[in-house]
Structure formats: structure tokens, C-alpha cells
Amino acid sequence: MSAATYETAQARAWLARRAGWSAPEIAFWAMVAASAFALPGSRLLIAEIAILGLFALSLDLVLGYVGIVSLGHAAFFGVGAYGAGLMAKHVGGDPLLGLAVAMLAAAALGFATSFLVLRGADLTRLMVTLGVAMLMGEIANQWTSVTGGADGLQGVVVAPILGVFEFDLFGRTAQAYALIVLFLCFLVARRIVRSPYGLSLRAIRDNRLRAAAIGIHVNRRIVGIYTLAAAFAGAAGALAAQTTAFVSLDVFDFTRSADVLLVLVIGGAGYLYGGLIGAIVFKVAADLLSAQTPQYWHFWIGLLLVCLVLVGRDRIRTTAARLVAQARPGGAA
Amino acid sequence: MTPALETIGLVKRFGGLAATNEVSFRLAPGARHALIGPNGAGKTTFVNLLTGVLAPSAGAIRLDGRDVTRLGVDARVRLGLSRTFQINQLFADLTPLETIGLAVSERLGHGGDFWRVAGANDAVLDEIVEIGARFGLADAMEARVGGLPYGKQRQLEIAVAFATRPRVLLLDEPAAGVPERERRALLASIADLPRETSVLLIEHDMDVVFAFAERISVLVDGALFAEGTPEEIARDRRVRQVYLGGARDG
Q: What integer best gives the mean pLDDT of chain A?
């Protein structure tokens, strides 16, 4: 079994296996694609899930990969939403151009505020990120000539995508657009976390002192991934603005930042799919439970959260893995 | 000859206490030098000052004649000053393959590559494999670091520091807590370190120190107390009094 020598080819094969697409991953995306066609009555819900999933994916890059907690991730979502909304209103309704501008604007804010989260304990970071989101919310509230203040941004008209695909009432275009943008962002994130850069992020998360002690540019890496994550959150905000043709102050709400954190914790941080799975669970549960007990569905989400955190996802996962291994004859790893 | 590493009047005060007190120390190129001292002598503080974890209150640190006093931990590593930790500081969720790979990639300037899949660079892979073999990790390269036996983790501590190809390597109690059957392999890999690497060993275990060191400095109450060859230190009456307890004779 354990040879006394280890060859370059073994190392290459092991790393390639790590980077390759696994069967569960392919199955996940196949199901996503299938749901887009199989559930015509839920297109708007699926679009919302994709947007929330992208937002949570963005948070996963900073929380799951470099271990930076945030209670203000809505700052970037909101800047993206207003960026796309203002583009559509004043410059032109092309959604892809709006998406690009929204991502750039959010990335710029992410870059500028990344320097605030380089140092400090979790509590410091929670407060700093929370503060940034509050600042952005208040700016949007006061700057009524641009944002429309508490009335929201009116008169957002979004043109057809590529001049062909018009946004319709049934959410056909919205669903496809949101899913495609999500998938493209996911591909970028997946590629990055499997690169040497991504590996160094995990090293920083696990042990920042040692990461520095092997020569990793810790601060530079954090700034880089925080900026990228902000751009993704901005994309989510842009999608939300474009698919609803409306932007209001609640894009900066504390509950939005808290919900996305909740979504990521439900799905699990640090493997990219957590945000997506969490978004599905969260939105579907909200949809089902609020039909049963309107207003009270947060009760069940809260119960789920407490159970997940107390029982521990690792324990659930290892138990599941053991059951799978037992079910498969000779399948002990 | 320019020392590989030099401190000039190095001071670190914590409130009124001088944990490092006017230490002027020289590590010769290619040295096999040990730093010893009783508990609380300030050895760990000294290492933290050398590596940039702590900023000194006064004094200067020079690496190959270059002033690095104000540089951060990672910048010093890139200039060739690496260390191991007394208490393992490893990435529990990674494998030795990935851990060593991080250090090698970083040194070769590939650590920031974000669009290349890790493992696609053969030069990096070859070096990872070579370092793994050198430190007896060939059979553990794909295992999760957190689950490795303690001796292997200690080997990995040194392997990772070595992977940065340091010109100066600080070993902070590398053999501490390693069970006897794994100890021999560990000491062998320390003895096999290449001569172009100057080594400063911080150690409690006198057998390890006297087997390894060609020169020994003694730190007492934050200040350099004595320095010399192992024979001189073993003979030194004052050193025996404060440290060796007089029980040992050369």
C-alpha cells in the first residue's frame, strides 16, 4: 500500500483528481439545468434562488476560503443593484453592460474596504463590515436625487439581453439569465479555488501565522479575493435589479447581510456548493412554509440553524459518508 | 565575512520587563549554532524578533548585511529567513503535498497564479516530491496533516521551512515531544541539512544540542550570557551554575 517512495506522477495524478469534476458536482448542475425546464411554474423562484446562491457564493469566497466573517455583505449587493439600476435608467438598458458596470462598482468598493478587514478578530470584522453596509445604506437614503431615496429607484427599463431576449412576466428570460450568470461566476470561482492562489487562501484561513512564515503575501491575497467576492455580490445585486426592474433601499438591509450568512451556514462554507444548496433550502423552505404559516416561517429556519450549528455539519457529513461506505460493498476508502 | 544573520543591540521591552536585553548576536554563514538558556530566558521572544512576529523596541537585525528590522514575516521569508515552530503551526486540513507545494510555489513566484490548476507545474511537483523524500514523508504525502503522527508533523514543520530554501533556518525546539522511535529520523534530517543553509537551533535537550552544534550561545534573562564552542560551554563554570546545574562534565 504505502510505498516508501513517492513519484512526481503520483503527485500530479492526485492534484488532478482533486481538480477534476466529481460525479456529485455534475449531477448537481444537471439537476439545476433540468429544473430550469421541468418547473415552468417556478421560474421566478428559480431566478431568485440563483441570485441568492450567487450572493452566498460570493460570501463563501471570503468566509469559507480566507475565514473573514462579514455581517455587511449587502453593501456590495446594494452597490451592484443601484449600479445596474442607474445604468439602465440613465445610460442605456443593455443588461450585460449594466452587469459589468455593477460588478466594477462593487469591486471598487470591495477593494477600498478590504483594507479594513485585513487585521482584527472576528468581532472587529463583523462590526466593520456591518458599519460599511450601514454607511452605504444611509448614503443611498440621503442621496435622493440619484437613488430616489425611500421611494426607490423608479423608471428602470431593462432592454432585451443581446437585443433579443426580452424580460417577460413569466420569468423565462430572468431565470435563464440568472442561472447562466451564476454558472459562469461559479466556474471562475471554482477555477480560482483550485489554483495555487486558492490553496494559499485556505492556508491563510487555517493558520495565518504559518502562511506568512512560508512567504505568502497574506494581505495581498486577502485584498484580491475580497475584491473578487465583492464583484460577485455586485453581480447578484445587478441581477436582482434587472430581473425586477426596481431597486429600493432594502438592498442594503441588515437582514439581507444576515440572511446570506444564514444561507451559507445552512449549506456549509468552504466548498463552493454550500451557498447554492443553502439558497435552495432557504428559498424553497420560505416558499413552502410561508404558504402554511405566513409570517412564522422564520421559526423553522431558526430551528434548522440551531440544529445545524449544535449537531455540527461535520458530524452529519461523516455519518452520511459512513452510511454510504457501508452501503457500497468493499467501498471503504 | 558578513554574518548570515546579525543583531545589533536588540531590545524588546514588555512594560518594564526587558525580555530581550541588548543582544548583539552573529550567525556565521553555514553555521551550526545552538541557542540555549533556562526557561524564561527569552529564547522564544528572540526568535519572534528575528522572524518579524514582534517588532523590537530598539536595535537592528541584518540578514546577509541587509537591514530587515522593519520588514514583515513574509518579506523576511522571501529574503531567505525561515523558521519552524516550537508548537506545530501547520494547515490541518491540507496534505503534506499541498503544504510543501504552497511554499515551493511561493518561492518560485507561482503562489499568486489564480488561473492555473494547482499541480500543472512539473518543476514545482518535482521539488515537492524531492523535499517529501528528504524528510521521510514519502508515505504520507496524500494524508490529511491533522491526522499524521506527531513525529511526521514535526518532520513536516522542518520540510515546509526548508521548502522556502532559506539561507538562514531557525529551528525552534524541533525535537520537543517527539517519541523516541521517531526521534532518530528527525535528528538525521536535521543533520542532513545542506551546508549552504546556516542553522540556528533553539533547544532544551542537551543531547540534541551537543550532537548538532559547532557553536553555542547561552541566553539568560534576555541577555547573551556566554558564547563558545560546545567544549568551552560545557567547561564554563558560570554556565554550569545557571543552566546545566553542574551535573554535566564536557
A: 89
Strand order in the sheet with B58-63: B17-27, B5-14, B58-63, B66-67
Q: Does A196 touch chain B (CB under 8 A)?
A: yes
Do residue B97 and residue A11 have CB atoms under 8 angstroms apart?
A: yes
Element (H, E) at B63: strand B58-63
A18 part of contact set with chain B, CB < 8 Å: yes
Minimum CA–CA partner of B121 in chain A? A12
Q: How far is B147 from chain A (nearest CA, A)?
A: 15
pLDDT in tens, A242-261: 999 999 999 999 999 999 99
Residue A42 C-alpha, separation from nearest chain B C-alpha, in angstroms: 36
**DSSP bridge partners of B5:** B27, B63
Calculate helix-pair angle for A8-19, B96-107, nearest 10 degrees: 100
Q: What is the DSSP string of B5-23?
A: EEEEEEEEEETTEEEEEEE
pTM to 2 decimal places = 0.89
Residues in chain B closer than 8 A to A20 (CB atoms): none
Determine the pLDDT at residue B111: 84
Helix (H, G, I), strand (E, B) or coil at B170: strand
Give the CA-trace dihedral at A126, A129, A133, A139, to 10 degrees. Answer: 130
Our CA-based measurement puts residue A14 at a distance from the nearest CA of chain B, in whole angstroms, of 8
Radius of gyration over every alpha carbon of chain B, rounded to an integer in angstroms: 18
- Bridge-partner residues for B18, per DSSP? B13
